[in-house]
Amino acid sequence: MEIGFIANAFREKSILITGSTGFLAKILVEKVLRVQPKVKKLYLLVRATDSQSAAQRVQNEVIEQELFHVLREKHGKEFGTFIWEKISPIPGDIIHENLGIEDAGLRELLWKDINMIINVAATTNFYVRYDVALNVNVLGPKHVMKFAKSCSKLEVLLHVSTAYVTRDKPGLLLEKALSMEETLKDNLFFDIDTEIELVERRKKELQAGKPTEDVEKMAMKELGIERARHFGWPNTYVFTKAMAEMLLGQLRGNLPLVIARPTIITSTWRDPIPGWIEGIRDTDSVMDVIPGDMVINAMIAMVVAHSNQNAEFIYHISSSVRNPVNYEVLERSGYSYVAKHPRIGKDGKEIRMFKVPVFKTLDSFHAYLFLRHQLPLEMLRVVNFILCHLFSKKYNELRSKYKIVMRLADLYAPYCFLKGRFDDINLERLRMETRKHGDSHMFDFDPKNIDWDAYFHNIHIPGVIRKAIK
Prior knowledge:
This protein is of the alpha/beta class.
């Protein structure tokens, strides 16, 4: 497998990027423009009503971000000219046929010009409506694949998935493709069309009763969780991402397909600036995290390595095998950073900070919640009953908050208490090739190079705090 000089592989190439206003896609756009200014065109698919609105979204949500500071400094007064020569915002949406691109002439131009497609678009909410998740995460990739097959010069399609589509069990979780209709429960199978029909049927049943918008929304959310767990996945997000992998594998034909499966993506490590992040989603237990710039470096290497190779390739972009880190490091780094950089309140006084408890097991977390929250809440319920519902308002408020905490804990538990480790042997082979061709510094995706204590203390936690303050 010859990679050669990775940046040179993008020279005079046209790339379609979906989900272009999202966290990962922004890092990708910036990186490609910085390392290969002679890229021909980056077509950025944006949800917008027209070209002007699409351009405005790209300007506000992509180009004006701090992430582009290095590029802005490099090009100076010519920055705007350079950007708009290379970037072409396209109004559309992957949930529609032809990616929602209504202009037939524009579609023809894209089909003749595009060399690579990188599908980053997704809804990443763990507790999202099932109908929305099916549209974006399943039918969306299907439409991308169909569009890709119309591109006469296409060299590769890369689809961003998640490592959590695999069965979580002790030991190595392998980089292998999911089989169509395969579930994470033995002897249980499912059909994607049946799931889509189920959603439509359930929506009609709900709408017959004329529910409020909130009632329908909650019912669709719960249906997604119910179906995901019935088949062995922890939530709607990973369930629908698994479906997308299956569909793409079935539909690709001879088209070169790369599935990139990152774990938990954190702020950038160093490239182009340390600690850049968007959207905060935040023992002896190991957490599998990987900085966003390393994810992009790996994706770029994958695209170059597998252009014009008529096969499907699966990669975990992870850290739990090569450089595992536990929650104790995050806790220690967080407490150390806050102690050295205390927050000041509006009154000018230092805000007192307390150590957050870190739990080694889900059982210990549940025991803590029971003793500190559920038991006092139950006592309040009894007192409220004895005193003729004197504290009903307070009880209902606390009970509602407790239910939200328990739901969040339920959704995030599989990510916090991972049983296995994500094997990355395929990615290690790719790393070896990049080192062989001298690209490993510019396109570094080896988590062994990260000092986790330094990363969390000096980069990630300050980045998260800056984002929270904004």
